[in-house]
Design brief:
Chain A is α+β, with helices and mostly antiparallel strands. Chain A is 29% helix and 42% strand. Chain A starts with a strand and ends in a 6-residue tail after the last strand. The chains are: A alpha+beta, B alpha/beta.
Chain lengths: 167, 587
Amino acid sequence: MSVIEKHTIAVLVDNEPGILARVVGLFSGRGYNIESLTVAETDRANSLSRITVVTSGTPMIIEQIKAQLSRLVPVHAVRDLTEEGPHVERELALIKVAGTGEKRIESLRLADIFRARVIDSTIESFVFEMTGSTEKLNAFINLMEPLGLVDVSRTGVVAISRGAARF
Amino acid sequence: MATEQMAGAEMVIRALGDQGVDVIFGYPGGAVLPIYDALFKQNHLRHVLVRHEQGAVHAAEGYARSTGKVGVVLVTSGPGATNAVTGLTDALMDSVPIVCLTGQVPTHLIGNDAFQEADTTGITRPCTKHNYLVKDVNDLARVLHEAFHVARTGRPGPVVVDLPKDVLFAIGGYRGPGSVQHKTYRPQVKPDAARIDEAVALIAAAKRPLFYGGGGIINSGPRACTLFAELVHLTRYPCTLTLMGLGALPASARQFLGMVGMHGTYEANLAMHGCDVMVAVGSRFDDRVTGRLNAFSPNSKKIHIDIDPSSINKNVHVDVPLVSDVANALDAIHAGLKARRFRPNQEALAAWWKEIEAWRARDCLAYAKTDKVIKPQYAIERLHQLTRGKDIYVTTEVGQHQMWAAQFFKFEKPRHWMTSGGLGTMGYGLPAAIGVQIAHPGALVVDIAGEASILMNIQEMSTACQYRLPVKIFILNNQYMGMVRQWQELLHGGRYSESYTASLPDFVKLADAFGAVGLRATKTEDVDRVIKEMLAVDKAVIVDVVVDELENCFPMIPSGAAHNEMLLGPEDKKAAGPVSEEGMVLV
């Protein structure tokens, strides 16, 4: 058995109805994994959207995923950021924590250490906004668990290559 | 470019004309009435009225595969579109260029569960190469031309254009096809030069080479078939073909080893197992071809020419991938071999051929000849013998008869063999034959069928008779779903669960009811007579050939087995023992 690798793939697509369904349907129909998926228009003038998908599979499966994505008619480009050199990845999370007393103060203290921002506050709750790597977000969310974690909303990973080149 | 103003429905007719379409296969309904009205008012575009939308798509497939042109289908919304889904999936699996126009409820009703509404683009997304929903009449002409471009270029496939009824009534600007420059869609049709060098070096140095050709050669066109035959001839290397590739090399060529795969010949499969260089040309390492993957051709370097990058390394790792149109890649290989003044390695090749001839001498297609009952193989052999020299096109349904047809009918030319390979769609053969006959009015078109498959689209007899199409339906009637029964015998202890069809119709009377001619053969000596009678009639004919009920299709690679574990006949089956548990779960 080949090893399972995790890859971050950027897909540039025409921003047209049904394109997300095409991509998601491809993954579900062929049994590929989606660990996270984000999509938004990134080029209004040309009506292009960028999909960032984090997936996992054997090298043969990863190659298939890229070939299958490239085959979709409205797909402009497929780039495997994991394979093509250094890149940066970020994820944003909104984390709701409720509590009073020492727990409330502790959550605020940890948020400060993790450079999370408070974007909503009541006397018994905070909503923290935090940007960082998936691992950093996971670490912070784990710490919030005993301090009154109520809910989490995450964007999934967005990524871009380092340096001056596109993608 | 100046645009001409017209209604959407007129644009559809105009665009089809501009795309060179002369015939469409369809069935009317509420949502497409404007198009049918526009059809009524013109006479350059012929419409063939089928009896079920699945039949329309298969007929268009038969038309497309026998001509190389795009087949066009017109169906209504809702059930019209859903009935077409099997045909579309079939066309996707076998890379057949189809444009299917579906009606849709008016745009303001989409999503409201309107009468005869279905989410056609949603349903057909995974079973088309691409699909469109046209919401603005001013996009219509561009989308239609684009649909044809996508369907016929690259790896061909079906494209659906969903047309809401209000768009068909709306007035907009029509643009001609012009030169379609799609924003994103650019199939790679020229091979990478460095890869060609690697391929040429491997081919030139091979000691135990094998060409493994598929339907991609035929899809690429006549030039690819010629170049392929020349390459096989020039190298003197052996060649096998897939089910879809039959006809890409004349079956009478000495170097042709027969079909490869589950019911392929012994010599083709052992050559595949034992070769040192495999040249896959427009074939896709389908599971029916490879058998057990971890035992597939273990000692060969593999070159793979395919226009679809996703076919490369999908099932089998290849050493030299060549993403290209087959004709261009073969051109480059020819040039490369010429440049290095290629001469085959005579000594090695002679030894390899000696081995192959020994396999060939096993005569793996031999069957027990008898006068007591008609052997299905015999019936096909006679059909082939008695139609030699005629311009004959063969379609099939799916099952044992299909494999026997592939084994015993010898195809000399491409585009004369139409069968459902990838999807394995029972009911394909009759409507496909109708499409072929429409494209080739003077030719002999025979659907080699089973009695179970033919009933799946038997309603198309009515179409054949309406258009006076003299298609010949040659049923090998064993009263069983033969391939199901064979697998039940081999894998499930002979428990023939639901594979016997009681109350079959009287096919002779059925033919008569449709206005066709019915013939029956029950004894070996009847076979020649009914074939001759069938050929003499200039009408649709159903021939009911009552064959040996329990005959099995051999040779066979049982599921989960490797090429060198092939069963040549019932005796091998006993010796080989039961199929592995791993094999049992495979289809």
